[in-house]
Amino acid sequence: MRKLILPLSLAAAVAVPAMLIGTAATAKDMVTVAVTAIVEHPALDACRDGVKEALEEAGYKDGENLTFLYESAQGNPATATQIARKFVGESPDVIVPISTPSAQAVAAATRSIPIVFSAITDPVGAQLVKQLEKPGGNITGLSDFLPLADQVALIQEITPDVKTIGYVYNPGETNSVSTLKALREIAGKAGIDVVESTATRTSEVQQAMRALVGKADAAYVPTDNTIVSAFEAAVKVAQENKLPLYAADTDSVSRGALAALGFNYFDVGKQTGEKVVQILKGTPVGEINVEVAKGTNLVVNPASAEKMGVTIPAAVIERATKVVE
After folding, report:
1. Quick one: 41 and 135 in the same domain?
2. Which of 34, 38, 45, 279 would be a feasible disulfide site paired with 99, CB 3.0-4.6 Å?
3. Please, which residues bridge with residue 96 across strands?
4. Whether residue 315 sits in one domain with residue 189
5. What global pTM score does this model have?
6. Which residue, 95, 31, 92, 67, is CA-closest to 272?
7. In this structure, are 306 and 186 located in the same domain?
8. What are the beta bridge partners of residue 262?
9. What is the predicted pLDDT for the residue at 73?
10. pLDDT tens-digit profile of 158-188?
């Protein structure tokens, strides 16, 4: 809890003890929530905003009874560690790390301050918790494990001749490695092979996409922070080479993916924020179950699809949650 420092002289403090008592009571009503993300891009930014919205709906307003802190690691794991240590030193009531690298950094920095992670594909595989139900300790949160079976079905519906899906990812991101393993299994059952192409930094994304040309019938980008941060580079290659490009997050469709069936990350943030509120109201963090995000949206971009040599079926457009014009 942050201390409120009053601009009073010692003499004034002695003269008005009742004022100090009243101010101390007000200070106890203040809470601090510190949010950090590995990088800034539309999906993670929406998640952050959703957390803040959930707090406001529960009566916690920034500048009134809430101090809302936010810092981005700008894609640098070392910076994520520095931010985690800085936040721990400030002793907030709850820390909300968005994305696996940030969550791992915060978890390593404290075992006492409540942590509510968000947008983590595989929290058990990332060794954040041992089990999803009543995880114990000081960590809980929200997983965004992807609806891969539905995504593969959508790829087959829009591009039925696909036999090979190109998977672009950063092998240093645990969530992307877990997703690749699951995708191979699900796509394999549908008779589709998966060929991978890697990029360890944003400057390598364009080359990683080019490596798929001639090897894949379509490309798929998971919720990988490195690739999503440079998504326009992937789109450029896809459009120039008529390679259908699908995304796991719906925010990437307005940036050029032809379609995505996934979570609305503002809603993911709100669901995360609801867990933060539970903790602020006194529920022990270890008793709050880790849950998978609820609700998926279908977003399509017919204009970008056309540039990739694809016509999105009318039936898909009709049931889309949003059509990017």
Report:
1. yes
2. 38
3. 35
4. yes
5. 0.78
6. 95
7. yes
8. 297
9. 96
10. 999 999 999 999 999 988 999 999 999 999 9
